[in-house]
Write a structure and sequence with these properties.
The chain starts with 13 loop residues before the first strand and ends in a 9-residue tail after the last helix. The protein is elongated, with a radius of gyration of 33 Å. The strands form 12 sheets. Strands 8, 9, 12, 13, 14, 15 and 28 form a 7-stranded mixed sheet that branches. A 5-stranded mixed sheet has the order 2-1-7-5-6. Helix 5 runs parallel beside helix 6 and helix 7 packs parallel to helix 8. It has 21 helices and 41 strands. With 770 residues, the protein is of the alpha/beta class.
């Protein structure tokens, strides 16, 4: 099938390797190196999904993990995976992709009726509407209509791995700043892990037309990656997302399988230092009907154009509040494509940019914005107005690139309790207080100019190496001989109520009207606002929804964005599959069977074993021709009349030693421990802080500073953890050690009138008389 929107040359794709795939049952072709999104755009396919709440037509909005709309279902049967972001899905031969959240089809979705009755479904409608006669009356219907995608019904056939690792420096992000950081640290001898979410290292170097030392950036990029791969102390992880940062800077990473026999690998990394080189995410703009297919981020247009040689539209228009979006207009025109205009909300723009657009024959509007758009399943045109709302001009177009500035990816910093501060010049939140061991590099720190990014990444990494006792030297940085238009500043985005619906969060269909309702009802705290409107929640996690939500809240309350603050970012940054978290801990490995020391003896005696607290213990010992129902009363009678032996080896056994052992247990038990004589045993009860009994058993004093504590069979691990918590977190002054010796000792209980006789027959030096 002809790829009408693919350039004849260029891009990082391999045109010698065509790949076949299907979307909604229709066959398409792409090339090795394509993403699913770029392959669809190459065929002019913009309309790929329906929105979460109103089922409006939605298209591909971005080129990365921030994608809020193009969430597709990949694979079939047991291999079906829902809600995959199309820009992150590498194209492979035979790929099957389908739209979700639509029925009976993408083109004709009956749930679109919700859009035509949208006035009935504002933010928080479910808490107000479905109260009579009760929530349960409506629950089934709401559950069927809510959610995105369908969970697979068959067992997951894939394999997942898990790895624990230590390193001196974990570099999050393999763009220019991350590569320089890894190179300096690697040469200095630090153990480095470089994690990059993309298929390739390079970040913006993959899709910006940059020249380093007079050569295309790919030349320098290839040399650096090759050197890093050759260093034995550097581990390169492609297709790996740093998903969370926890206490003591422990990080979790999710690595996608790439030619391996496993689908995903879940890493737990304990680094001494963390370098955050995650870059920044371009933000959208808020205007009337800003959610149509054909509207996408201006940076994404460059991404598809330069990396995949894909033209997302024939007649483009750019709307922005910063300089970087001008590069999209320049790149499109240099490829001979039509750019109808650039609409900038700022009153003053650098004269150099205005002249450059004039030379390219592109109209330019300042102090203006998009007022409305028209189209259905594809954008057809826009209306331009001034900032006071007066119409200026209507322009037909099929592609609208929007840029509301750049927001640094600071999620991991916030996971580690770092603080942010709003920068009015850049119109974004930048890192302020950094947690111990955290270093922020490049555009994640708000820097824009590439030469400065590389220089500061090197100097910061040298300091890190010196702090860790490694001498680092200067590396030769490339000279940026041809750069791109950078944005160190951005204009404020004007927001105001409109009779037209304006989306501030595409992922959850949150409109400016929802924001107005939230403020009217008193939800003007940023955390309350988030929960009432659902802006920035779930699949988005604030990537494209947060900043515009803060802008809306600022416009409606009269407070500055700095006064409003941010919501709390929580891990994971990107979804982590349950399979990766479980790894191989499934089936018999989920809860490994534990056997009694005398397990084989029990089997030889005909014991029928069952699972009791993870232990395989015999229920009874049926004789020949006897069933369980008959064996149990027979054995009970034998114990009452003679003697029986009970294998009680799983009972919890915890040794407590140290000068403070008696005082420690005295606080744990409700019983008196201090008065217990050496060699004596006492029955004891353990309570939690609420006074509820949590375990019982006997404890024995073996010496003045040595006790053996027994717990219930199922409580041994739980009680040990509790004891350790009290010692390590609360009573740190007590000199006590606890040790679980449950599996080191076998236990047998003799019961019945002849118990003493049986015990004496075994032979012992202990006086067993009464």
């Amino acid at each position: 099938m002809k790829q009408d929107f693919r350039l004849a040359t260029g891009g990082l794709i391999d045109r010698t390797q065509p790949l076949n795939f299907s979307f909604n049952g229709k066959p398409y072709t792409g090339f090795a190196g394509d993403s699913l999104a770029s392959a669809l755009l190459a065929h002019g396919v913009h309309f790929v999904s329906r929105s979460f709440k109103y089922h409006r037509p939605r298209g591909i909005f971005s080129a990365g993990e921030e994608e809020p709309s193009a969430l597709l279902e990949i694979g079939e049967g047991a291999y079906r995976v829902p809600s995959c972001r199309a820009p992150l899905v590498p194209l492979v031969d035979g790929l099957l992709a389908r739209s979700q959240n639509c029925w009976p089809s993408l083109a004709f979705d009956l749930a679109r009726a919700l859009d035509y009755t949208h006035a009935l479904w504002p933010a928080g409608f479910y808490n107000k509407t479905f109260k009579w006669p009760s929530w349960h009356t409506w629950e089934g219907m709401v559950r069927r209509l809510s959610g995105l995608g369908r969970c697979p019904e068959q067992a997951d056939p894939d394999t997942y791995e898990q790895v624990n690792a230590h390193c001196d420096l974990l570099v999050c992000g393999g763009g220019p700043a991350g590569l320089v950081t890894a190179l300096v640290a690697g040469r200095a001898g630090l153990r480095v892990i470089l994690a990059e979410q993309d298929l390739q290292f390079g970040g913006a170097l993959l899709w910006e037309r940059i020249q380093l030392d007079g050569q295309p950036a790919a030349q320098w990029l290839g040399e650096v990656v090759a050197e890093l791969a050759a260093l034995p102390n550097v581990l390169l992880l492609r297709r790996t997302t740093v998903s969370g940062c926890y206490d003591h800077n422990v990080c979790t990473l999710l690595q996608q399988g790439d030619g391996h026999d496993w689908r995903e690998c879940f890493w737990t990394v304990r680094p001494r230092r963390i370098a955050l080189a995650t870059g920044a995410i371009e933000q959208g703009l808020v205007f009337g009907n800003n959610d149509r297919p054909g509207i996408m981020l201006a940076g994404a247009i460059r991404h598809y154009l330069n990396r995949y040689a894909v033209v997302p539209g024939r007649r483009a228009l750019i709307a922005c509040n910063n300089d970087s979006a001008y590069q999209s207009a320049i790149d499109l025109r240099q490829q001979g494509l039509e750019v109808r205009a650039v609409v900038d909300s700022r009153a003053e723009v650098r004269q150099q940019l205005i002249q450059q657009l004039a030379q390219l024959g592109v109209d330019h509007f300042t102090g203006a914005r998009i007022g409305n758009t028209r189209g259905g399943r594809r954008l057809r045109g826009v209306a331009i107005e001034n900032l006071s709302g007066k119409g200026i001009r209507e322009i037909s177009c099929d592609l609208l690139g929007v840029s509301g500035g750049w927001a640094p990816r600071v999620h991991l910093l916030c996971h580690a309790r770092g603080a942010l501060k709003f920068d009015a010049a850049r119109q974004s939140f930048l890192p302020d207080r950094r947690p111990a061991g955290f270093h922020v590099m490049g555009s994640a720190a708000g820097m824009a100019e590439l030469g400065q990014v590389l220089s500061l990444a090197m100097s910061d990494t040298i300091r890190v190496c010196n702090d860790l006792g490694h001498k680092a030297g200067q590396v030769r940085l490339p000279v940026v001989s041809q750069g791109v238009v950078e944005s160190s500043q951005a204009g404020a985005v004007p927001l105001q109520p409109s009779r037209r619906r304006q989306w501030i969060d595409l992922a959850h269909d949150v409109t400016f009207a929802d924001a107005e309702l939230a403020v009217r009802e008193g939800y003007d705290s940023v955390e309350h606002f988030k929960r009432y409107t659902t802006a920035g929640m779930a699949v988005d996690q604030g990537k494209t929804g947060n900043l515009n939500a803060f802008r809306a809240l600022s416009a409606l309350t009269g407070r500055t964005i700095d006064e409003i603050g941010t919501t709390t970012f929580r891990p994971p940054y990107m979804p982590v599959t349950l399979g990766a978290i479980a790894g191989r801990s499934q089936g018999d490995f989920y809860s490994p069977r534990r056997f009694l020391p005398a397990h084989e003896v029990h089997r030889q005696l005909g014991g029928t074993c069952g699972d009791y607290g993870g232990w395989q213990r015999p229920d009874c010992y049926p004789l020949a021709g006897e069933d369980v129902a008959a064996a149990i009363p027979r054995e009970a009678t034998a114990v009452r009349n003679s003697v029986g032996v009970f294998d009680n080896s799983p009972i919890g056994k915890i040794e407590v030693r140290g000068p403070g052992a008696a005082e420690f247990l005295h606080r744990i038990y409700i019983n008196d421990v201090h008065e217990l004589a050496v060699g004596r045993v006492r029955y004891g009860l353990m309570l939690n802080e609420n006074g509820v009994i949590i375990d019982d058993g006997v404890f024995c004093r073996l010496a003045d500073d040595h006790f053996l504590v027994n717990t219930t069979s199922g409580g041994a691990a739980r009680i040990l953890a509790m004891l350790e918590e009290w010692l390590q977190c609360e009573w740190t002054g007590l000199r006590v050690l606890v040790d679980d010796v449950t599996t080191q000792w076998a236990n047998f209980t003799f019961a019945g009138p002849r118990a003493r006789e049986l015990l004496q027959s075994l032979g012992s030096t202990i006086d067993l008389s009464a």
